[in-house]
Amino acid sequence: MRRTLTSLLMRRLAAACAATTAVAQVRRQGTRPPQDAPPELRRPAAAHDHEHDHPHEQEFQPPQKPSQEPQFLKLSTNEKGVTTVKLARAPVNSFNLEFFQELNQWLLWMGSNEETKAIVFTSAIPTVFSAGLDLSEVHNPQQQRLTLFWQSFQELWLILNSFPKPLVAAITGNSPAAGCILAMGCDYRVMARGPKGNSDARRQYRIGLNETKLGITAPAWTMPAYAYLLGSRQAERLLQLGETPVADEAQKLGLVDLVVEDEEKALEAAYQMVDRFLLIPQNSRWMSRDMMRREYLQMLASDEDRNYDTEFTTQMLASPEVQQNLNTYMERLKSRTRK
């Protein structure tokens, strides 16, 4: 992981919660709090900090803007500094290693880019926000690539939940599994009920963590956020059954904040919510978010935690039982496509 964090942020995080070192490591890559962080939040360096042993961490070195144009993202920034990030990996915005890496790199840069004031996530592909993980990454996987893939997924979760600027999801289509996880990392979720002009209640978009239906589990580090949004009992039930409620039900459960008629209205509502976030002094807004989300990061709070999670998950995914379940599921998908 890249090492470019201000000593200011390191002190801020240590004072806030020593256990969440994962946040500090992600922020070394570029995200940081607003520049006007008050002096009282800057804990004086203690002897055990050993900052004098790491002179390269004394000053913030912001990440460079990625040199290549994004392959799987469409980016645009309006006059207010709100950047719209459209997921654009056909056919269904499934996350593979390269997609994760690209998204992480751009988010790290935007987290430090002063011209970026907020981000709205949406999709460039009709009727789908994101279908989740690319199953080709976990079906008959190559071990080294699977490890990098899972570490990049962890990194995205850390970035989202330590991001210093408002994040709003305009969920303009179905959003199972990792699509739901991306949305959970945002500060506000507005979801389209269905396609524009749709009058069929059976065609409402769905969202949720459906991993058990594939014979696997959702990442353990996403479950505290899922339980926080839905309540522990409802989260447990939905996780066990792999259910993905339709938009209106998801709002009742607390998984999304607002449901509107279609994709166009979802984007409108997302920008309106960004305006509300930006009216608040950003330092206090960010600190409130940061303190509320510490629990979301506990399971990835150290190198040891992240390595254990990676080892456990990659072994689980490579097990014969899981591979057989994935093979059955993918064959079922192929048969549907042929029809």
Provide keyphrases for this structure:
2-enoyl-CoA Hydratase, Chain A, domain 1, 339 residues, alpha/beta, globular, six-stranded mixed β-sheet, three-stranded parallel β-sheet, disordered N terminus
Can you give a write-up of this model?
This protein has 339 residues and is of the alpha/beta class. Helix content is 43%, strand content 12%. It has one domain (73-338): 2-enoyl-CoA Hydratase, Chain A, domain 1 (Alpha-Beta Complex), CATH 3.90.226. The radius of gyration is 20 Å and the shape is globular. Mean pLDDT is 85; it is low at 1-31 and 36-52.
Topology pattern, helix = H, strand = E: HHEEEHEEEHEEHEEHHHEHHHH
Broad structural category: alpha/beta
Q: Could you please say which CATH topology applies here? A: 2-enoyl-CoA Hydratase, Chain A, domain 1
Sheet with the most strands: spatial strand order: 1-2-4-7-9-11
Poorly predicted regions are 1-31, 36-52
Q: Distance between the terminal alpha carbons, to the nearest Å?
A: 45 Å
CATH-derived architecture: Alpha-Beta Complex
Number of strands: 11
SS summary, helix count? 12
Query: What percentage of residues falls in helices of 4 or more residues?
Result: 40-55%
Q: Tell me the overall shape.
A: globular
CATH superfamily: 2-enoyl-CoA Hydratase, Chain A, domain 1
CATH C-level: Alpha Beta
Subunit structure: Homotrimer.
Pathway: Lipid metabolism; fatty acid beta-oxidation
Biased composition (Basic and acidic residues): 39-59
InterPro entries: ClpP/crotonase-like_dom_sf, Enoyl-CoA_hyd/isom_CS, Enoyl-CoA_hydra/iso
